[in-house]
Amino acid sequence: MEKFKALFYKIHNDYYRWYDFLLILPVIFFVLLLAGEIAGQLLFNLLIIPNMGLDDLAFNTAVTRYGQTIGSWIVLIVFLLIIKPDRPVLKTFWKKYKGNTVLFFLLGLLVGGGMNVFCAIVAMLNKDIAVYFNRFQFFKVFVVFVMVFFQSGSEEILCRGFLYQRLRRSFRSPWVAIIGNALVFGSLHLLNPDVSFLGFLNIVLFGVFMALMIYYYESMWMAIAVHTGWNYMQSIVLGLPNSGLVFDFSIFKLDVASATNSFAYNVGFGIEGTVLSSVVLAVGIVVIVLLGKKRKGDNLWVVGETVFSKVKEQIAE
User: Fold this and answer.
1) 212 vs 221: CA distance, rounded Å
2) pTM of this prediction?
3) Rounded to 5 degrees, what are φ and ψ at 18?
């Protein structure tokens, strides 16, 4: 029994709480996710959709599908305000988290959009896809950008905000939080159209990439921006499938008849279901680890008097 306790304290941080048990935490996560979806749908059905014009169905659909995710923001923030032990997670949303700067946000947009457009250009040069100009209406394009920000941000604050930070609080090794949240993030996309093992793997790799930004640079803003840049460039600028989902509203459109499967493009799942995407994300992970290896890592949770202190003293004796 004493050996078991010693192993338990070696694995877990001093501020581990009983409801951080791995069978409980995913339940809390998915309840928050479901509650956020319901809240977003209610908000749009009651306030937004009735006031939408009927002249542009493609625009309305994009705004609704992306914008409803604002419900996750509302639900999670209310939850964190109510549950005092989890309240420090709110710091990761504001400037109190040292990496949350305008510079890192803009850099994130550049990195996310740049990585995605690089993959798309390779696919075009390999003649896997062809795109043509569809339309550009500045106001509508900007509104959809804001909605994509809410959608990408909702996944980040849930996975790299709540889930990652709860795992960081519970386990001594940061890799439990980095890989654990990425696996859950990948599971959220298992029901997407035409998802494959490679598509799932790439979404997990993307989750690891995002979590490393939190760990090394303490920048939720940069992670949200990378996610936003990737999704917006892919779905709204280029008109390509976003994790298998296609929207009619886009600046360019994919010539569907020209699309073929290759190392750079997957007809069903898009760029994210390819070997090229795996390589690009793997390189991104290596680069951020090499750039951040001399950094201390995030330190949101401050060690104070812990629930383990007396028991650990008894074991030491």
Assistant:
1) 13
2) 0.91
3) -60, -35
